[in-house]
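Colleagues,

For the teaching module next term, I've prepared a clean inverse folding example: a structure given as tokens, and then the sequence designed for it. I'd like students to try predicting residues themselves before seeing the answer, so please don't circulate the second half yet.
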């Protein structure tokens, strides 16, 4: 067989392989497990928002664009200066965790063109922090209502990011640190210390007051008991108890009893040899 006849086929095959290899990056693409993708058909100008491309290898036309989104949990840390209710400047560091809705990345691409973190998440977090902290004083933010402030910021940010036009799920928002001017911080800490001391003093007063009340109630109870006993000791009862005691003494094996006359209450007078 003449190899020269096969040469055109070999050349065509080599060219085809070269073209296929050159276009492989345009024909094949891979979506990682923590990713989702959508396709934009350049010829028709249509963004396919409904068909979310799942992880794995896929084939596309060279003129089709693919937009890939990381749908795992992301974190952003922001430092900013805000004003409290009284206009005092406060430096605050916030950390926020979030993720895009997997089935809504087409909406996110259409609205934010892949820059949803810088265009949506960060500005909304900063806005919520400023608005919420502007409703509290520095003392409340720093000490007494920090948890309430943190919850309010998270709730308001979560509501905005999760709205139908934004489609981002808020996972958590934490206030990492709050920095006040040194003099203000010291004044707040001194006030808190004085409040704790006042509470401790009030606790001691309440305890002593309770103890005094307990002793008063005990004394009143004992006095009422004595009054009841005294009112029940009639002459007849005392005489009867005396007779019973005399009988007991008379029958005692250790006593030699001599009755000499009688006592003023009509009871015998008993004398022992001891």
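(Answer key — instructors only)
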């Amino acid at each position: 067989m003449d190899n020269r006849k096969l040469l055109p086929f070999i050349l065509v095959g080599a060219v085809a392989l070269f073209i296929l290899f050159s276009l492989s990056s345009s024909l094949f693409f891979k979506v990682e497990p923590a990713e989702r993708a959508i396709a934009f058909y350049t010829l028709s100008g249509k963004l396919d928002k409904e068909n979310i491309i799942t992880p794995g290898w896929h084939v596309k036309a060279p003129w089709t664009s693919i937009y890939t989104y990381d749908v795992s949990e992301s974190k952003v840390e922001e430092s900013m200066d805000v004003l409290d209710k009284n206009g005092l400047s406060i430096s605050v560091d916030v950390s926020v965790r979030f993720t895009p809705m997997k089935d809504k990345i087409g909406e996110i691409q259409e609205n934010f063109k892949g820059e949803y973190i810088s265009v949506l998440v960060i500005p909304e977090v900063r806005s919520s922090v400023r608005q919420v902290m502007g409703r509290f004083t520095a003392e409340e933010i720093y000490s007494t209502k920090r948890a309430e402030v943190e919850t309010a910021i998270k709730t308001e940010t979560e509501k905005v990011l999760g709205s139908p036009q934004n489609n981002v799920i808020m996972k958590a928002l934490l206030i990492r640190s709050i920095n006040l001017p040194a003099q203000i911080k010291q004044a707040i800490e001194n006030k808190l210390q004085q409040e704790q001391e006042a509470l401790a003093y009030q606790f001691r007063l309440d305890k002593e007051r309770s103890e005094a009340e307990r002793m008063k109630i005990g004394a009143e109870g004992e006095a009422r008991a004595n009054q009841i006993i005294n009112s029940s000791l009639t002459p007849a009862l005392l005489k009867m108890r005396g007779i019973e005691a005399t009988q007991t003494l008379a029958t005692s094996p250790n006593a030699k009893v001599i009755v000499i006359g009688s006592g003023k209450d009509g009871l015998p007078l008993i004398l022992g040899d001891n």
